[in-house]
Design goal:
The chain is an alpha/beta fold. It has 3 domains: 80 residues, Elongation Factor Tu (Ef-tu), domain 3, CATH 2.40.30; 112 residues, Rossmann fold; 54 residues, no CATH class. It contains 6 helices and 17 strands. The strands form 4 sheets. The chain has a 7-stranded mixed beta sheet with strand order 10-9-8-7-11-12-15, with helices on both faces. Strands 4-3-6-1-2-5 form a 6-stranded antiparallel beta sheet. A hairpin with a 3-residue loop joins β3 and β4. α4 runs parallel beside α5. It is globular. Bound molecules: flavin-adenine dinucleotide (FAD).
Length: 254
């Protein structure tokens, strides 16, 4: 059981919950978060130094209950689980869509400490939804913003902006987390340019440790084989951006 130290509003719908206890995790790894009496669900680690941090979009019962927790409340944490991001090369393009910035923020911070240059595209629906822009600038990343409604930066989707950033320089690798249509668009760009890519996927998870099969995608488990997959796996995933399993194991559209 971890003890809540504080909650911070990051955007109008995204919060960060910090805990007194720390946890050593590689950027991209996740924990299973148990809100007693409500639900258990997976969340990426967004801070591991100076106390675990989780940055979450407030959606349904589980995350609403998490948002109601205050300093001193106790939450169950299992993990860290899964495979995180690995640094490849000296110039990286990192692309985050919405809450997908949560696992990428610590990755950017780690990458810059390895003398790696990072161009970061943060995509959001509107300017008030942009997550961790100042955190990434402080870390030393070159930040590019896209908003669907044009209220800040490039007007349009993050994939369009990412393509123009790629055209303006020579990059070694692409990293991404966000909606699967965005990941698929980036995968096609990575394939056409012969660039390696790593992307973090989300699937419904129950056990988080490779037993229940809830998070299966084309024969792999997102919890143990991922959640970060390389372009070698991603390009074999016929289900990417098409179908996923729901909480009852039924195949449904993404
Ligand atoms: C590896 C991984 C890392 C994640 N990291 C983050 C993160 O850092 N920040 C963040 O905001 N979200 C993250 N998610 C998504 C997060 O788990 C769900 O948004 C959350 O469980 C919603 O719960 P809810 O009860 O509030 O919403 P609900 O109303 O119950 O569900 C809303 C949506 O969330 C998804 N969801 C619900 N329960 C689960 C579950 N047990 N497993 C997977 N997806 C579920 C479903 O797609 C559902 O449609 C991650 C998911 C995975 C698989």
């Amino acid at each position: 059981m971890f003890t809540v130290s504080k909650q911070t509003d990051e955007t109008s719908s995204i919060k960060t919950i910090r805990f007194k206890e720390g946890l050593a995790a590689t950027p991209g790894q996740f924990v299973m978060v148990w809100v007693p009496g409500v639900d258990e669900f997976p969340m990426s680690v967004s801070y591991s130094a100076n106390g675990l941090g989780i940055t979450y979009q407030v959606l349904g019962d589980g995350t609403k209950a998490l948002a109601s927790k205050v300093q001193g409340d106790r939450i169950g944490i299992r993990g860290p689980y899964g495979k995180g991001f690995a640094i490849h090369g000296k110039r990286l393009l990192v692309v985050a869509g919405g809450a997908g910035m949560a696992p990428l923020a610590p990755f950017v911070e780690e990458a810059v400490t390895h003398k790696t240059s990072v161009d970061l595209v943060i995509g959001a629906r509107t300017s008030s939804n942009i997550l961790f822009e100042s955190r990434a600038i402080k870390a030393g990343a070159k930040v590019h913003i896209s908003t669907d409604d044009g209220t800040k930066g490039f007007k349009g989707l993050a994939v369009g902006l990412a393509e123009s950033v790629l055209t303006g320089g020579k990059f070694d690798s692409i990293y991404a987390c966000g909606p699967e249509k965005m990941l698929l668009g980036l995968l096609r760009i990575a394939e056409s340019r012969g660039l390696p890519m790593q992307a973090s996927l989300e699937r419904f998870m129950k056990c988080g440790i490779g037993i229940c099969d809830s998070c299966a995608i084309d024969g792999k488990h997102v919890c143990t084989d991922g959640p970060v997959f390389s372009e070698r796996d991603l390009s074999t995933f016929g289900e990417l951006a098409k179908t996923k399993l729901d909480m009852c194991g039924r195949k449904v559209p993404v």
